[in-house]
Amino acid sequence: MKENLEKRLTKLRAWLKDAECVIVGGGSGLSAAAGLVYSGERFKANFPDFIARYGMTDMYSAGFYPFASEEEKWAYWSRHILVNRWQPPALPLYKTLFELVKDKDYFVLTTNVDAQFYKAGFAAERIFAVQGDYGKFQCAKACHDKLYDNEEAVRRMADEQAGCRIPTALVPKCPVCGGRMEVNIRKDAFFVQDAAWYAASERYDDFYDRACKKKTVLLELGVGYNTPTIIRFPFERMTYQNKDVRLVRMNADYPEAIPENAAKTLSFSEDIASVLSALIS
Questions:
Q1: How far is Cα of residue 276 from the mean position of the Cα atoms in its chain?
Q2: Banded model confidence at residue 14, pLDDT cuts 50, 70, 90
């Protein structure tokens, strides 16, 4: 039987106080809990014209829409990037999370591409954003491994679009091969992992090896089964294989521990923002 919330919070406070290392695993549920919801009223408020024209139902599925032209595709994507990457400030939930771990020896492993960890104050050298960044362009065919900041281009596309299209002159082109550009998010075999990506991966591997030998708390936040091999399954394995590693799993739908880790896992199905706020109050 699951302990009541206050007992779990008390235990978690003790775990964090005792921890020598903390690894934060941030999934899409964390950003949703912070307010970056991809459906419902937020979607309707930001994309009424695309809903009317294409019958779109949410931002996630809209990302796979087979647009007939680059002008249409970038009209949608520029607005998507703008409302999820460039417009939002550091959101309160992420700032609360930073306050919780900032004085610890921490590292962030995240599949999120909205840069909220960076905005909230987490040190860039302590973040590994595995799946990319909405704020970067890359060659669609990965003809080279350089990434390009896209804020100026995205804002202009969002400002100048009309009828769910951008002007042809604003369609981004690869500066090397002249072909199409894409957002730097992992969606096909052409995802670009640049030098900074590999450097972050190496820093995380080094931290992971060190954390396995210490009293470590894994804060798994909003990680489901979309890409479980990046955070969820490795965190379970790390907990199982190392006696001083403990797992904290916050997930509205999938908070359960695997049986082998039941004694070393705290599960929270409650709202992530409420739980983290309670921890620092």
A1: 17
A2: very high
- Count CB atoms within 10 A of the CB of residue 164: 17
pLDDT at position 240 over 90: yes
Q: Report yes or no: 76 and 67 within 8 Å, Cβ to Cβ.
A: yes
> String of b and e for 116-144 (b: at least 16 CB within 10 Å)?
bbbbbebeeebbbbbbbbbbbbbbbebee
* Among candidate residues 71, 29, 33, the one with its CA nearest the CA of residue 225: 29
User: Could you tell me what percent of the chain has a pLDDT over 70?
Assistant: 99
**Residue 137 and residue 56 share a domain:** yes
pLDDT, position 3: 79
- Residue 106 has phi, psi (to 5 degrees) of -120, 165
- Mean pLDDT on 179-205: 97
| Same domain (yes/no): 103, 205 | yes
- Residue 173 is encoded by which pair of tokens? 């082109």
One DSSP character per residue, 158-222 reads HHH-BTTB--GGGS-B-TTT--BEEEEESSSTT----HHHHHHHHHHHHHHHHHTTS-EEEEEES
Instruction: Look up the domain containing 59 and give its range.
Output: 37-87+132-185
With a CB cutoff of 8 Å and minimum separation 6, the contacts of 115 are 85, 129, 133, 134, 135
271 & 227 share domain: yes
What is the structure's pLDDT at 2?
Answer: 64
pLDDT for residue 1 is more than 60 = no
